[in-house]
Each structure stands twice: as structure tokens, then as C-alpha cells.
Amino acid sequence: MESISAPPPDPATPAARLPSAFSGHAIKLVILVVGWLLLTVLLGMIGGLVGEREQYRHEAEQRVAAGWGGRQIVGAPLLRLRHAPRIDKEGQAQAVPDRWLALDQASLAANLQGETRRLGLFDVPVYTADLQLRGELAGPRLQSALGTAEQPVVGADLLLPLSDPRGLRSAVSLQVNGTPVRLVPVTGDFNGQRLLGSELPLALLQRGELKLSGQFVLAGIESLQALPTASELAFSIAG
Fold first, then answer.
1. Residue extents of the structural domains in the chain
2. How far is CA 94 from the centre of its chain?
3. Can you tell me the distance from the alpha carbon of 28 to that of 51, in angstroms, rounded to the nearest whole number?
4. 1-26 burial by CB neighbour count: b if 16+ within 10 A, else e?
5. Which is it for strands 172-176 and 210-221: parallel, antiparallel or unpaired?
6. Section 70-90 average pLDDT
7. What would the pLDDT profile of 138-195 be if each residue is shown by its tens digit?
8. Residues 6 or more apart from 121 whose CB is under 8 A from it?
9. Residue 34 predicted with pLDDT over 90
10. Using CA atoms in the order 86, 210, 202, 168, what is the torsion angle rounded to 10 degrees?
11. If 0-12 CB within 10 Å is exposed, 13-18 middle and 19+ buried, where does residue 47 land?
12. pTM for this one?
């Protein structure tokens, strides 16, 4: 009796093709992983170069700002009233917080002249602004804030928020109810902004309403913004 042997497997069957197909998928996967790694390294290098360039630009801006003034934020003047200490039932003096008053209406008009300062590879835009300032505080509101005999006001300060006083190119002199008042840098801040200020005679505030006006020159880099420190603030830039 003849023995019958099984025919050899057909190379075209799926069982014979499986190792070759698996190898193809593995190669594609390796290529994708290597490509992803190379892309990640490339993006990291580009990000590092961009970050380094931004750091150099920031350093250039800071060097220009040191002698010119930085990005400027200026607000309308504020009135700060200082009260006498309150005496409690035990006869101890208790400090009374200062009261801040914003102007009812104020306007800031800037006439801007811009130019460019080049430092190394970078052009830094700078400007000089001629600022016209006006404002007023209504009489009834002011007189009501001046306190009573039981809680008198013992001092008043006019304070102007300004982010970088290094940019001042002139004295800040205002007319307050017809009296000249010069503002100079003082300690403290308002919402993170530095302050120019001057103490006001209380007699100046007892004439009814408060009206002020003035002009000063301010330099800075890149931007000039207004801080809304008045109930109604009109801010305009020309030039």
C-alpha cells in the first residue's frame, strides 16, 4: 500500500505571509518612532533658540529703559485723606485707614513723538509724550469726605500713579484750585504702580470743588497706557 503524504504549504497562504507582514509593520513603527524623536528634538532646539532670542530682546529693552524709561502706565490723580486716630472707650488711640477719592472727571491727552533705538540685533521703539492733564472733583462729594468734628481729616495728599518715573523729562507741576503744586516721587504704590505726590493744604480743599490741570513730558518704550483712576477718564493719543 502506497503512503500518501500531505502537499507542501502554499507560500501564498496567509500562514506563510504572516512573518513578512509582521516585519513590515515593525519597520514602519520603528520609522515612526525615530521620526517622532527627531521631530521632538528639532522642536526643542527651535524653542530654545526662540526663547534665547526673546531673552536677548528683553535684555535690550531693559538696557534702553534704564536710560529712557520703560513701558508707561499713567493714571489720573487721586486724593488721599488722612484721619486723626480714633479714641476708643478705654482711651486708646486706634488708627483710622486713609480714605482715597477718585476724581469725578479727568482727561489725559498725549501728543506722541516716536523713534527707534537700535541695540545689537534689536530695534526698540521709544517715544516722548507731551501729556496734558485735567480733572475735577465735585464740591458736595469733597466736602462730605473731609470728615466731621468727631473724625477730622488731618492731612491730604494728591497722588499720581506712574509706572516708571525714570521716564520723566520735566517736572510734574499742576494747578490745584489755582495754586501751583509740584508732584515728586513718594514711597508706596497704588495697585502696583509707583506714585508721584504732594501734600495739599487743607484750606485748599475747603473752597468747594477741586479743579486741577497741568502738563508734563514723559518718555517710555513700546507702549503708553492709562490707568482708570477716575470715575470718567478720557484718554487720547495723537502724533
1. 16-68, 69-87+95-238
2. 36
3. 34
4. eeeeeeeeeeeeeeeeeeeeeeeeee
5. antiparallel
6. 91
7. 999 998 888 776 778 999 999 999 999 999 999 999 999 999 999 999 999 999 999 9
8. 56
9. no
10. 100
11. exposed
12. 0.74
Which set of grid coordinates corresponds to residue 33? 518612532
Q: Which of 178, 173, 172, 210 is nearest to 80 (CA)?
A: 210
204-221 residue pLDDT tens: 998 889 999 999 999 999
Is pLDDT at 16 greater than 70 in this prediction? Answer: no
* Whole-angstrom distance, CA of residue 26 vs CA of residue 209: 84
CA distance 87 to 126: 53
